[in-house]
Design brief:
Order of helices and strands: EHEEEEHEEEEEEEEEHEEEHHHHHHH
Strand content: 25-35%
Shape: globular
Helix content: 25-40%
Largest sheet: 8 strands, mixed
Number of helices: 10
Strand order of the largest sheet: 3-5-4-12-13-14-11-15
Number of strands: 17
Structural class: alpha/beta
Radius of gyration: 21 Å
């Protein structure tokens, strides 16, 4: 029988690791502490950028996204398409696809004993000594912010091929309106408490004629790990996914970065390379470091400076920042073309 590769946590980071290990000939054993997959609520959006290790099955796609509609403090900046495509997924079906495609054995309600490095599988206590730890945000020790959302039905005049982002520079966060099948997810995340965000979201919905008469199907809340990378081990297992900080800090996007982190770490381990070094050198780690630095700068700017920066960037710059493909020197050079913004912001960007 093939050597076992253990995956603690059945989220996106675990799915990426399981896929790599299975494709490299290992028996994959997934230990999921909950009684099902994809129980953490999120926006469920994935940019189609060609960097996932496995394809997204058609049955997991709820909506195809062709446009981004962007606002800053109530001012509409643009509705852009053509260079940015994405999908809204049924996350449970996506994870099930990743695991089943490599014949992974998924055990639910199976808790990993961090102190002893063992887990119960069926009636046996098994030593878990080779694999990844993808336990999610509960095991992340960096900065986290709350996100709250409603899933609503009966919404009028919403483009189901578009995602809507509304930056709030006072909040240092944003509201979002995402399609979800024939329903809509409307939420807000930022540097406030859960209670404050619920009040802001209720006000946002009340002020939007498209949303105020909608029917609430679900009310969901979570936290998002936006403090940057926290690479390392838990016992003998390499941390991946949100437990290691694989969330883009500016956008909160976590599914794609987490899948990639699990794949990179597992592949390196099996090939006899240092998984932490492989993670550090990956493009997704670089993107997280850049976004975290940008977020720290944004927190030091005045509300007016943040507003000027966001309004001064074009669709391509916004897309590259969101996807994690924009380098800092390119951002600075593009701001040079906007003298009124550059004179205030470039010194801060270059000096940190």
């Amino acid at each position: 029988m093939s050597k076992a590769f253990y995956v603690v946590g059945g989220g996106p980071g675990g799915a990426g690791a399981a896929y790599a290990a299975g494709k490299l000939g290992y028996r994959v054993i997934v230990l999921e502490a909950m009684n099902g997959l994809a129980l953490k609520p999120c926006g469920r959006g994935i940019p189609v950028t060609g960097d996932l290790p496995f394809s997204i099955p058609k049955e997991a796609v709820l909506n195809n996204i062709s446009y981004v509609d962007l606002y800053v403090d109530g001012t509409h900046l643009f509705k852009a398409g053509g260079f940015l495509r994405g999908v809204i997924v049924d996350k449970r079906l996506l994870l099930e696809h990743a695991f089943s495609s490599v014949g992974a054995e998924v055990y639910y309600n199976s808790k990993y004993d961090i102190r002893r490095g063992v887990a119960r599988i069926g009636g046996d206590i098994v030593e878990v000594n080779f694999g990844v730890f993808a336990g999610g945000f509960a095991y992340y020790d960096g900065e986290r912010i709350p996100v709250v959302q409603y899933v609503v039905a009966g919404v009028r005049d919403v483009d189901f091929e578009s995602i809507e982002i509304r930056f709030d520079t006072r909040l240092l966060g944003y509201y979002y309106v995402f399609p979800h099948g024939d329903e809509v997810e409307v939420g807000v995340g930022g540097f406030e408490s859960h209670g404050s965000l619920w009040r802001l979201l209720d006000k946002f919905i009340e002020n939007d004629p498209r949303l105020r008469s909608s029917k609430v199907r679900r009310r969901e809340a979570a936290v998002v790990s936006i403090g940057g990378l926290r690479l390392g081990y838990i016992g003998k297992l390499v941390k991946v996914g949100e437990a290691a900080g694989y969330v883009l800090p500016l956008t909160g996007e976590g599914i794609r970065p987490s899948i990639i982190s699990g794949y990179v770490a597992a592949k390196a381990m099996i090939e006899g390379r240092d998984p932490l070094e492989a993670l550090r050198r990956s493009w997704v780690s670089r993107a997280i470091r850049i976004q975290r630095r940008l977020l720290e700068w944004a927190g030091k700017l005045s509300v007016e400076e943040r507003r000027s920066l966001l309004r001064g960037l074009g669709p391509l710059e916004h897309a590259e920042i969101a996807l994690g493909t924009l380098r800092l020197h390119r951002l600075a050079s593009r701001l040079l073309l906007k003298p009124r913004i550059a004179i205030k912001l470039i010194p801060r960007i270059l000096m940190g």
